[in-house]
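From the shared-data thread, chain only:
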Amino acid sequence: MWEDLPSPAALTIAHTIQLVMAPVFLLTGLASLLNLFAGRLSRVVDRSRDLERRFEELTGQAHDRAVWELRLLDRRMTLISSSITLCALSAVAIGLVVAGLFVARLIGGGFGRTTAFLFIAAMALLVLALALFLVEIRLANRSIRIRNELLERDRRAR
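Structure, as tokens:
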């Protein structure tokens, strides 16, 4: 009868696995965010390369508009790259939380404060990454607005 029951070590490992499932799901979400950020960065880089290729041919207002857009694209690349860095650091911190929980269970040590600090740091890094992403989105919205002169709207219709 007693041999059918799991050993205390197996119960401890099973409990630890249950405990680390939330951070593991968070890692999956972070991976999705990193994929999103990388996709946006790729599109911004492609747009800047396209403008750089045509830059020498542009004159007058078209040249000024290209300079403005290149500066905006450069700022967007910086923001997205920073978001990627912060998100990756958040993922590293979450990975350390998961590893720390297992190590604490295996050696019976009390790493509660360290684990809590790492989790708080991971959340702070994630919040900063998302805040920078919001700033990048605002900049992107600036660049996709269609100029009024291209819309050829009648002033009386406004």
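The chain is about 85% helix and 0% strand.
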